[in-house]
Design a protein that fits this description.
Number of helices: 2
Mean pLDDT: 76
Strand content: over 45%
Low-confidence stretches: 68-73
Largest sheet: 8 strands, antiparallel, barrel
Strand order of the largest sheet: 1-2-3-6-7-8-9-11
Shape: elongated
Order of helices and strands: HEHEEEEEEEEEE
Structural class: mainly beta
Radius of gyration: 18 Å
Length: 192
C-alpha cells in the first residue's frame, strides 16, 4: 500500500512540476483524504467551451483498504474504476471560467474483487452507474479545492461468485432504494 501511495504522489508532483507551461485550460486533481484509507484517484479536467469542461478520473482501491461503517473497519478487497464527468459552470463573468458552482452528468465503471464475509468466499462485481453531479470549486492562485456530490442509480451490476455463478441486480428483486448510487468527493487540484 505504501508503494502505491508513493507512486501516486510521484505522478501528482511530477505533473505539477514539469507541466507548468501548458495552457490554463487543463487541471489535475486528487483526493488526499482517500490516500489514508488506500483509495487513490487521479483526475484530469479539460475545458472544451466557455463554462463547460470534461473530467476523466481513474480510481484504485488497494487490497489493504478499509471500509469504515458504523464504527467498524473491515477489509473490502481491491477495486479499480473510471469516471467521466461533464461540468457546466454557472459563473459567466469570472476569470478563470471554471470556478464556482457547477452541475453536470457523471458515469462511472467499477470492478471490485474481494472476499465476502458470509459465507467466506471470493467474489467479483462489475458496476456501471450514472447520475447528476453538483459541486463547487474554489481557486487559490493555481491551486483549487473542489467539493462534489452526485446522486445517481445503477445501470448495470453483475456479481460473479467463486463457482462462476452470475447474478444481476435485477435478478435479486430488491427494494427500490437498492438501485440508488452516489458519487462524492473532496478534491485538491492544480490548474495549468
Amino acid at each position: 500500500m505504501m508503494r502505491i501511495f508513493k507512486y501516486t504522489q510521484a505522478i501528482f508532483l511530477s505533473l505539477i512540476l514539469f507541466l507548468p507551461n501548458l495552457s490554463a485550460q487543463i487541471s489535475i486533481n486528487s483526493r488526499p483524504a482517500g490516500w489514508v484509507y488506500g483509495n487513490y484517484a487521479l483526475g484530469v479536467e479539460k475545458e472544451v467551451r466557455d463554462n463547460f469542461s470534461i473530467e476523466l478520473e481513474a480510481q484504485f482501491r488497494s487490497a489493504n483498504s478499509l471500509l469504515i461503517s458504523l464504527g467498524e473497519a473491515r477489509p473490502i478487497g481491491r477495486s479499480y474504476g473510471a469516471t467521466a464527468i461533464g461540468k457546466y459552470y454557472f459563473n459567466q463573468n469570472t476569470e478563470p471560467t471554471r470556478n464556482g458552482v457547477f452541475i453536470g452528468p457523471w458515469v462511472r465503471y467499477t470492478h471490485r474483487r474481494g472476499i465476502a464475509e458470509e459465507p467466506l468466499q471470493p467474489f467479483q462485481h462489475h458496476i456501471l452507474s450514472t447520475g447528476t453531479l453538483m459541486g463547487i470549486k474554489y481557486d487559490w492562485n493555481w491551486f483549487y479545492f473542489e467539493l462534489d456530490f452526485g446522486p445517481g442509480f445503477f445501470l448495470y451490476n453483475l456479481s460473479i461468485d467463486q463457482e462462476g455463478n452470475r447474478r444481476r441486480l435485477s435478478d435479486l428483486d430488491p427494494e427500490p432504494w437498492f438501485f440508488l448510487s452516489a458519487y462524492s468527493r473532496l478534491a485538491v487540484g492544480h490548474r495549468f
